[in-house]
Write a structure and sequence with these properties.
Radius of gyration: 24 Å
Number of helices: 18
Helix content: 40-55%
Shape: elongated
Bound molecules: uridine-5'-diphosphate-xylopyranose
Largest sheet: 6 strands, parallel
Distance between the termini: 56 Å
Structural class: alpha/beta
Strand order of the largest sheet: 3-2-1-4-5-6
Strand content: 5-15%
Length: 451
């Protein structure tokens, strides 16, 4: 637990990268009382962030930027030289999946280190937050050292983030744990400095674990592998439920009461997508293979396969409900974001299904409360509507693919008057089957009985 005086500490912090992680981290660090300079090479992004406009939708983020920008504690720049003098430099750049491979592309992390190194001082600590293959931190420290000014010993700690989109601010200022990976002669001082950064949340009792570099790197990917496994487990049960005529939602409720299992992340449906879970489990398998531990993570291949199979099962169900072919059928797709409360469409199961239906000749119309612009950009050949009702006009089948609250509030009786054929397939198991059926709809779902 930090002492009371630590709570008054205000540090100068730099944040490298203003993607999802970087923007949220920078704004939250300013909110915690630190002075923050966030750097990105994209001038358009920096210009818009300086005006308080975030590049993505995240609940509470615009408000937070509106609060901390006028305080002067948060600035955005494209100029690396401005990070000089910061006590702590956070590396928050992305590690996407390499094109045509399972492995993660860590080039942005190394590029950030290269740009940062000449500006390091003896006192400054570099902190990696990006999700990286185990072993990256050790290599990164060598890279920082190679580029650091003469006489400066580069200091590096690994402090993975666990933020969920939609809850990113809460997960940053009040996470369920901090993990510090430290190494070398400055380890104790590095822990003390990180404790100053997080003095506020630590004082509220957030647990903090100190470990070595590889353990810290592994915590993040192991957590995501576990979450993906939990989701694919229940989706595998959904497949069995379909074969046996059982109900996966009731099964999950009953399993969840066992607190060794827990109900969270047991929502069966279209499976996981987004910028983290799919690519992180693939990169984890690739790295284990490099380490000669491929057998240990062989099961993740099956987790991935179960997940991908949900998407094709949804297309199969849609085809089946349309009389065996999607050719020329009107398909209304509710949802484009990979999950609700986000406009992120990276590896979105909803858009994957929409695109597959389109490829089979369906006339697809998509509606999403926040992700329309992003979806249009990446899938210009799909149709788009400005409302649920407009998307459903004359639809032969309605697919519920992202569980926005707005979709749970649809009046099925009113919607039945708009469609050609009142058939809904609930890909997220969050609509009320009784309500929809009583309004005259054929309600189908993944892993639930037909009637
Ligand atoms: C995830 C991790 O939760 C987070 O800790 C990490 O830092 C980044 O990756 P995120 O990608 O924002 O966060 O979303 P998450 O809430 O984990 O959901 C991932 C996907 O799983 C979504 O597509 C969601 O729809 C799906 N999901 C989640 C299910 O299909 N069923 C569930 O029960 C839960």
């Amino acid at each position: 637990m930090p002492t009371a005086s630590l709570l008054d500490v205000s540090l100068t912090i730099s944040v490298i990268g203003t993607g999802y992680l970087g923007v949220v981290h920078a704004a939250c660090m300013a909110e915690l009382g630190h002075t923050v300079i966030a750097v990105d090479s994209d001038p358009a992004k920096i210009e818009s962030l300086s005006r308080g406009v975030a590049p993505m939708f995240e609940p509470g983020l615009d408000e937070l930027l509106g609060k901390v920008l006028p305080s002067g504690r948060l600035r955005f720049t494209t100029d690396y030289a401005q990070v000089v003098g910061a006590d702590v430099h956070f590396i928050c750049v992305g590690t996407p999946q390499r094109r045509g491979e399972n492995a993660a592309d860590t080039s942005y992390v190394f590029a950030a280190a290269q740009s940062l190194a000449p500006h390091l001082s003896q006192e400054a600590l570099v902190v990696g937050k990006s999700t990286v293959p185990v072993g990256t931190a050790a290599r990164l420290r060598d890279r920082l050292q190679a580029g650091a000014p003469e006489g400066v010993t580069a200091r590096l700690a690994w402090n993975p983030e666990f933020l969920r989109e939609g809850f990113a601010i809460q997960d940053t200022v009040a996470p369920n744990r901090f993990v510090y990976g430290v190494d070398g002669p400055s380890a104790e001082a590095d822990v003390a400095l990180l404790d100053e950064v997080y003095a506020g949340p630590l004082a509220s009792g957030t647990p903090r674990l100190v470990c070595d570099f590889p353990t810290a790197e592994l915590v993040k990917v192991a957590a995501n592998a576990f979450l993906a496994t939990k989701i694919s487990f229940i989706n595998a049960m959904a497949e069995v439920c379909e074969a046996a005529g059982a109900d996966v939602v009731q099964l999950a409720d009953a399993l969840g009461h066992d607190d060794r299992i827990g109900r969270k992340f047991l929502n069966a449906g279209l499976g996981f997508g987004g910028g983290c879970l799919p690519k992180d489990i693939r990169a984890f398998m690739a790295r284990a293979c490099e380490l000669g531990a491929d057998e240990a993570l062989e099961f993740l291949r099956e987790i991935d396969a179960i997940n991908v199979r949900r998407r094709s099962r949804m297309v199969d169900l849609a085809r089946e409900q349309c009389g065996g072919t999607l050719l020329g059928k009107r398909v209304a797709v509710l949802g484009a974001a990979f999950k609700p409360d986000s406009d992120d469409i990276r590896d979105s199961p909803a858009l994957d299904v929409a695109q597959a239906a389109r490829t089979e000749g369906a006339v697809v119309t998509v509606y999403d409360p926040k992700a329309m612009e992003a979806a249009r950009r990446v899938h210009p050949d799909l149709g788009y509507a400005d409302s649920v009702e407009e998307a459903c006009i004359d639809a032969d089948v309605v697919l519920h693919l992202t569980e926005w609250k707005q979709f749970r509030q649809i009046d099925p009786a009113a919607l039945a008057t708009i469609v050609e054929n009142p058939t809904v397939i609930d890909g997220r198991n969050t609509l009320d089957p009784a309500l929809w059926r009583s309004a005259g709809w054929v309600y189908r779902a993944l892993g639930r009985p037909t009637v």
